[in-house]
Amino acid sequence: MEWIVPLVIVIFAVALLTQALKVIRQQQVGIVERLGKFRRTLDPGPHLLVPLIDNVRYTMDMREAVVPFPPQGVITEDNLMVSIDSVIYFQVVDPVRAAYEAQNYIQAIEQLTMTTLRNIIGGLDLEQTLTSREEINAKLRSVLDEATGKWGIKVNRVELRSIEPPATIRDAMEKGARAERDKRAAILLAEGQRQSQILSASGDREASILRAQGERESAVLRAQADRQAQMLRSEGEAQAITTVFNAIHAGKPDQSLLAYQYLQMLPNLARGDANKVWIVPSELNDALKGLGKAAGDLLSGAGYEAPNKDEFSAPQKIDVFAEIEQQKIEAEGEAGRAVQQAIAEAQQMEAGKQRRLSTTPQLDATTPPVQGAPEVQPEQ
User: Fold this and answer.
1) Do 321 and 347 share a structural domain?
2) What whole-number distance in Å separates Cα of residue 41 and Cα of residue 158?
3) Four-point Cα dihedral 346, 347, 352, 358, nearest 10
4) What DSSP assignment string belongs to 276-303?
5) What GO molecular function terms would the record report (predicted)?
6) pLDDT at 187
């Protein structure tokens, strides 16, 4: 029985030491009360307390906490019920106030968030509620931060995770959005077709202009070539006639030679299947008389003198091919100059077209046309 008393004393001492030694974890703060009254705070690490007098009443977590709240039904300004799901990021900055100023600060923050959301959403219609999340978050954070400051809590962020309108409103919104997209698609299609028609008309006009200019230049060159050919042909015929005429006069033909030539041409006059009637010209009698007289003079040996061959002089030789070649060179030079002029005019028109296209304002395909704006007509 003698060892029982020392054993009890040892057990009692271990229990007192265990109660007196407190270890506070990192990012936590302990609230110590002495006989029910706040005494001090304990930082992270081991601490010794007075047994049976001091007691760690609260252990506050100093890390940032994330508290999601269940969806809340809120009525908008246009009397529509929407369900809002929110989440709050807060942090304890004063553990003593958080422990003694609010009985349950998380529940208090939740109730304050619900009432604040009702006040904010009640002043907005459904469209503003769906498109003003940043504004709602800022207002809610300002109100919560001001209200929780006296509790030793700082609200860092407030986020609205979802805003759910009624099912009927969602269907109507989807139909409206679909109709708006269809309208924009139709507008873009019409704009594209109009632009395509304008560009096609402009291209056809430019092509017609260039085609007409090409035809004009071609007609001019063809006319010049025909004129040059006619001139060369006329000059050749004139030179041939002159040569024949000079040769005839150089040979000094008499009446008998002319009559003989006239008789040789008579079969050519009567040649042809369609000739039914022979027309004998009045000059035939004179030719026959001259031919008979020449024959009689030849037979009688009197009055006929043969032409003197020494008196014949050949006509001056004319180089017809050289003249034709010279005319051809001149015609090619004029044609080349006309072609160069046509090419320069086409280049000037192409440059003017590029300047007009660069200065013409482009329509934005993604922007619907403004109502009442005058429609751009294609350039005539």
Assistant:
1) yes
2) 30
3) 130
4) -S----THHHHHHHHHHHHHHHHHHTSS
5) peptidase activity
6) 92
Residue of 36 and 349 predicted with greater confidence: 36
Give the pTM.
0.44
Do 94 and 152 meet the contact criterion of CB atoms below 8 Å apart?
Answer: yes
Element at 57 (helix H, strand E): strand 54-61
Co-location of 352 and 290 in the same domain: yes
Q: Which residues of 119-146 are buried (b: 16+ CB within 10 A; e: fewer)?
A: ebbeebebeebeeeeeebbebbbebbee
> Residue 23 corresponds to which tokens in the numbers above?
């270890």
Pair (48, 76) in one structural domain: no
Closest by CA position to 108, among listed 165, 69, 79: 69
Q: What is the pLDDT of residue 8?
A: 78
Percent of the chain at pLDDT > 90 equals: 2
**Residue written as tokens 């873009």?**
188
CA–CA–CA angle 29, 30, 32 (5° rounding) = 145
The number of folded domains in the chain is 3
Confidence of residue 375 (pLDDT cuts 50, 70, 90): very low
Write out the residue range of the structural domain in which residue 264 sits: 205-268+282-303+317-359
The answer to whether the CB of 82 falls within 8 A of the CB of 163 is: yes
CB 129 within 8 A of CB 90: no
- Is pLDDT of 252 > 80? no
Is a pLDDT exceeding 60 seen at residue 97?
yes
Query: Which DSSP category does 49 fall into?
Result: -
Largest CA distance in the chain: 208
Q: Report the pLDDT value the prediction gives residue 303, as an integer from 0 to 100.
A: 46
The rounded distance, in Å, linking the Cα atoms of 286 and 299 is: 20
